[in-house]
Amino acid sequence: MLIPISNTPRDYAWGSPTLIADLEGREPTGAPEAEVWFGDHPGSPARVHDGSERTLDAWLPAVSAEQGVPAKLPYLLKLLAAGAPLSIQVHPSKEQAVDGYAREESAGVPRDAGERNYKDDNHKPEVIVALSETFTALAGLRDIERTRALVAGLGDAPAVRTLRTHLSADDPADALRASIGWLLGEADAAAIGEIVDAAASADPGEFAAELALTRSLHTAYPADPGIVVALLMNLVELRRGEAIFVPAGVLHAYVAGLGVEIMAASDNVLRGGLTPKHIDVDELLALVDFRPAEPPFLRPTAAGEGAEVFAPGIADFSLGHLAAQASGSLDLRGVAIALGVAGEATITGASGACVTLRPGEAALVTPEESPLSSDGRGEVFVAMPGD
């Protein structure tokens, strides 16, 4: 079966008022539109257009035995449109999520409480692929020597000296753990302001983009310690079609742009700045992988003519891509969701069933329709379970 599904944008404050509307070819509503969820997550389940108008979280259990499909998807597919920076955040591993969820359940913390860290017991690795011409993100902690060079150029204000001292530990992970722990847990607004002011007046040199981001973050979140944490992170500018993979423990924040995002079906987020939402510094520090690393780019692998797959090597998901201007065919794993992002693509399953997708339109594809083919008149991403 190929069944159209749809959802409405979520109006988080950081959303763009234009990016999703422009993709879909409609007039903006005037409100921020941050994400459109295509999946069965109870936070915003997609609606199934098979005549029943059920939401996908109700549809899958109802047909699972008859259609031989799982009652729940292991992944969540999204359109994400960042008009302002998202929070600096980290996601737990599966083991950490199980432990954290059990702790908060035992403590009686309501699942919808603002101070709740673990909404479920699942991990939340994620991949984002740029759909806008550029997509700006912070992803992982920068090489320690380059970070020390950046901070060395910020002058000699007392707070800068303190940060420099924390960064001087012999072990890079220890240096970054101490620095971020101080910034989030001990540094006051005056100290953060001193570092931000130093960044604003520093000679940009090779770190011009990082220092410019510091100034713009300060405009949005004055004296927020996350502004300085961002100075320690890899600043990444994806071009259209490029992707990053964010596994458990990797500190990250999406800054600006439109992307297609796929993740394990979870809502577990530990935040560390650039947000008015709950921040639990101790829990965040317990989850972060403080080892510096290069930006976590994810290259697709060829999957036949006109098709490729972004596969991070986890069971929860992989993301197929059927390019425009080239008819392609993609082998599916389990229940898939196809999302049009450009042009007008007709996708056809093995049974001969077909549906035409315009940008922002999606369809649920059941396993017997593998392989799924596209006529090449448009561009389609296909969410499915991983290996």
Describe this structure in words.
The chain is of the alpha+beta class and 387 residues long. It folds into three domains: 7-137 and 238-272, Jelly Rolls, CATH 2.60.120; 141-232, no CATH class; 303-384, Jelly Rolls (Sandwich), CATH 2.60.120. The chain has ten helices and 21 strands. It has helices at 19-24, 56-67, 94-106, 144-152, 158-166, 172-185, 189-201, 208-220, 226-230, 281-287, and strands at 2-6, 35-38, 47-48, 75-82, 88-90, 126-130, 134-141, 233-239, 243-246, 252-264, 270-273, 301-302, 307-310, 318-322, 328-330, 336-343, 345-348, 354-357, 362-365, 372-374, 378-384. The strands form four sheets. The protein has an eight-stranded antiparallel beta sheet, with no helix packed on it. A hairpin with a 5-residue loop joins strand 17 (345-348) and strand 18. The longest helix has 14 residues, at 172-185. It starts with a strand and ends with a strand.
Query: What CATH architecture of the largest domain do you see?
Result: Sandwich
Bin the strand percentage. Answer: 25-35%
Spans of 5+ residues with little confidence (pLDDT < 50)? none
Radius of gyration: 22 Å
- Under CATH, the homologous superfamily of the largest domain reads Jelly Rolls
Q: How many helices?
A: 10
Provide the residue-averaged pLDDT: 95
CATH first level of the largest domain: Mainly Beta
Summarize the amount of helix as a percent range.
Answer: 25-40%
What name does the CATH topology of the largest domain carry? Jelly Rolls
Q: Kindly give the count of domains.
A: 3
Q: Structural class, from helix and strand content? A: alpha+beta
Q: Separation of termini?
A: 22 Å
Largest sheet: 8 strands, antiparallel
Approximate shape = globular
InterPro entries: Man6P_Isoase-1 (IPR001250), Mannose-6-P_Isomerase (IPR016305), Pmannose_isomerase-type1_CS (IPR018050), PMI_typeI_cat (IPR046457), RmlC-like_jellyroll (IPR014710), RmlC_Cupin_sf (IPR011051)
Protein name: mannose-6-phosphate isomerase
Catalytic activity: D-mannose 6-phosphate = D-fructose 6-phosphate
GO molecular function, one term: mannose-6-phosphate isomerase activity
